[in-house]
Specification:
2 domains, membrane, flat, transmembrane, two-stranded antiparallel ribbon, 4% strand, 2 strands, CbiQ protein ( ABC-type cobalt transport system permease protein 1), 72% helix
Length: 254
């Protein structure tokens, strides 16, 4: 990805934003992950793909392709090892039954649907926004403190690692396998020591400012309630009410 995740989040223009976005995503994920209907998965994929593409453009496809590549081998394995009475494909020791193919398809659609829902949250919501919404739901202050400190610590760690890597590369630290191993060892040691120093400096600065264990969290305005309610209504309908007859004939499971 040419842009960092933080940059994508900052440039995103979601139709649903603010704390209501977090609640919307959590409810949608619950409806999708607990459903046994193919139509629920398809509806979630379509709805959240459209919302995410509108918000971040092609970054959604780039973000989603990596977990899908990891998912595909597992789906193939599910199709091969699931026993069944009706054979769909057979070659030498490979045997795919109709039951295995159906289970792999169902698992794949459910996984992609859940990834689509979470991708909308990940690509359009910064950690402070997420923490603000969760605090409204009653997230304890120690967890808020931990989330924000880890978020800040990761950013500092990434910046420091890039600085050390660039300095080592300019000095010819990766010209051979032996040099790469030696340089990586020194960079890792420097990174560990600098991380410990940064943590101590942060603790000292917070104590000197009379930090009492409660992080200030900004409040965000919500918008897009109509889109959120419309999408939730669609997901509830396909989850509990019914689906078009053209889908109802697929495997008899809708």
């Amino acid at each position: 990805m040419h842009r960092t995740l933080e940059r994508i989040q900052a440039d995103a223009t979601p139709l649903v934003d603010g704390p209501v976005k977090v609640y919307f995503v959590l409810l949608s994920l619950l409806l999708t992950a607990t459903s046994a209907r193919f139509s629920s998965y398809v509806a979630a994929i379509v709805v959240f793909s459209l919302l995410t593409v509108h918000a971040v453009g092609r970054a959604y496809v780039t973000f989603l392709q990596y977990p899908i590549w990891f998912l595909l081998p597992s789906l193939v394995l599910i199709a091969l090892v699931t026993p069944g009475t009706t054979t769909v494909f057979e070659y030498w020791i490979l045997h795919i039954s109709e039951e295995g193919l159906l289970l792999a398809t169902k698992t794949g659609l459910r996984s992609i649907a859940s990834l689509s829902v979470l991708s909308f949250l990940a690509l359009t919501t910064t950690v402070p926004q997420l923490v603000s919404a969760l605090r409204t739901l009653g997230l304890p202050d120690p967890l808020v403190e931990m989330l924000l400190l880890v978020y800040r610590g990761i950013q500092v760690l990434v910046d420091e690692s890039i600085r050390l890597y660039t300095a080592a590369k300019l000095r010819g630290g990766f010209t051979s396998k032996r040099a790469t191993f030696r340089t990586t060892k020194h960079v890792a040691t420097s990174l560990l020591l600098s991380s410990l120093d940064s943590a101590e400096q942060l603790d000292l600065s917070m104590r000197s400012r009379c930090y009492d264990g409660v992080f200030p969290v900004r409040d965000y305005d919500s918008r897009g309630h109509t889109y959120a309610l419309g999408a939730l209504a669609l997901l509830v309908f396909v989850r509990f009410v019914g689906t078009p007859s053209v889908f109802a004939q697929f495997g008899g499971i809708l």
